[in-house]
Amino acid sequence: MQTWYAFLTGPALWVTFVVFLGGLGVRLAFLYGLSRERDRVFYNHMDWRWAFKSIVHWLLPWGSASMRLQPVFSAVFIVFHVGLLAVPLFLSAHNLLWDRAFGVSLWSMSDAWADGLTMVVLACGLFLGIRRLVRPEVRILTTAWDFTLLTLTLAPFVTGFLAYRQWGPYEVMMVLHVLSGEILLVLIPFTKLGHMVLFFFTRAFIGFEMGARRGARAW
Amino acid sequence: MSHQAAAVEPGNVEVHPVDVKKIQQILEANNGARIRTWLSICSRCGLCAESCFFYLAHNRNPRLSPAYKFKATLGELYQRRGHVDWDFLHRCADIVWGECTTCKRCSMYCPFGIDVATLIATTRTILYSQGITPQGLARAVVNYRKTGNQMGMSTEDFVDTCEWMAEESQDEIKGVTIPIDKKGAKYMYTVNPREPMFYPQDLAMAAKILTVAEEDWTMPSTGWDCTNLPMFAGDRALAGQVVRTMYEKAVELGVQAILITECGHAYRSALFEGPYLAGYPDGKPPVPIVHSVQLFYEYIRDGRLRIDPAKRLKEPVTYQDPCNVSRNGGLWEEGRKLVQFLAEDFRDMHPNRDHNHCCGGGGGYIPMGPEYKARRMASGRVKAEQIRATGAKIVITPCHNCFDQISDLNKEYQLGVKVMSLKEIICELMVVPEKFQPEDNGGDEEQT
Ligand code: SF4
Ligand code: SF4
Ligand code: SF4
Description:
The complex is a heterodimer of chains A (219) and B (448). Chain A has 219 residues and is mainly α. Chain A is 80% helix and 0% strand. Chain A has 12 helices and no strands. The longest helix of chain A is centred in the N-terminal third of the chain and has 28 residues, at 11-38. Chain B starts with 19 loop residues before the first helix and ends in a 19-residue tail after the last helix. The radius of gyration of chain B is 22 Å and the shape is globular. Chain B is 46% helix and 5% strand. Chain B is mainly α and 448 residues long. Chains A and B meet through helix 2, helix 3, helix 5, helix 9 and helix 12 of A and helix 2 and helix 4 of B. Chain A: This is Nitrate reductase gamma subunit.
């Protein structure tokens, strides 16, 4: 287990970061090139103010008419995303690793907070999974891959949570934790999880298209 | 939801195999950054469902959610790289013509702003390339190709109608003319062919308003049809040609702007989609495009036309935002203010403005013909309920398709309303200055 752990937090971690950042970079560069060639409409009607408004309204809780129509889902969805980003970035154990690797670290949240937030993320994930099954308009769109991705997204949280509590075999949990985190990062650039960065571009576009050209609020 | 075969193909295409190569070409040509990104990041969250009136009108049938519609059509076409059969294409036709009016409301409700209308329009292009398009649109396409307008009207007939209407109007307003091909006029007025064809009084009303406002205007003898049904049929090349003819005529006449009649999709085509369809790289039409809602609003706001306060409509009035004038045209405030000049008791629908629902007559639905009427009535339920809730007795709408659809809904749902266009009301309510009053009319009318 030790060697596995060492491998995963050593060379494998570097590879993961390279694939994650590089993959997103390549995907963006590719789409940029393609858009220059085929999506003139994007550049012809560019307007930063509308792009900004369009993005901000969808980042603010209930900032859009659509979110207000489904307040519960929106709340879950916001908390889920906050947790997804905050726990891995601000967990103190991760910050120790950042420090060791790069000599810099971010602000750390207390372990109690991280623990609580992890449970919240898991609960939200469960809610989203159940919603996929019970709401007909979501079920009809859902494929096995959606559940797979949701499971993979939650896996680092489940394993991290279990490891922190020392439930189950700790070392195995840690290995699974790192492994699942790495799998997730590697998948982001190549799946719908790419929305992590692509969101900003599609929202900017609809801001140009509906807002800058017609003045309509796309939120 | 009825799933009767909705699309009809001109000619017997079924004996041929599907032209997969052709489909692949269109898929490739459209595989830009936008469509690629939209199709790949849709999170299948279902948030868009609630925004679509088809979904709402059919008791939240999940097959009518925007995301399902584009996944089951274009999404699938990309996934299968165009290797599909006739059955599949007919199912697509049923969805893209029978279940979406490309009103773009859903793109305002999707977290990623996925522009479903563009995905649906692309699918229509693919189907058209295989000879599949609704009969009504197929007929219009033939007419455009032959005569440059959707109803196959000849230039002589059109010019005759204009002259006839100008003459008729002189009984009411002195000096009304309909100038044809006048060079250097300020506005080149373009219309929906159903006006000269079936409702010539619409031409007369426009002429009266423009005369009283002392406008410098003209009607072109060609390129006067501002509608664009090939755009809805999926014939992009022809759609481009139709707008190009109109633009080029405006440039040839040296007018300052093209004025669009009370039609929704004509405005969307002329101002937003037309330049791309016609291949103008900067996406801008060669002359400014003005919708009559805008112009009429300015006339009344600036006092160029005066409304007789005593004649203002007393009954409750509501305003139908045509998607292509409001959400997709940006003129919701102008439309509302204009109506408030004309009516004492204005009641807004909810939701309204850029978030208003499509009436269910857009996207080519009306000209698609009687085969689609039952579905059109069923999906218009949302609009009927919106109208009923206002308690209005008059529905004003500056779009021919909305006009027809709401007139049909009025009967179907017994709304007890009267549907009117702006021109009609303005003509009734405007103060006619003395110099425009015909001699034999005495002095008993209001004077300015
Ligand atoms: S709201 Fe947008 S992301 Fe969600 S299912 Fe609909 S199209 Fe897809
Ligand atoms: S464009 Fe309009 S009709 Fe089509 S799916 Fe979206 S909301 Fe429904
Ligand atoms: S028919 Fe009217 S409401 Fe419907 S799409 Fe056209 S303009 Fe929109």
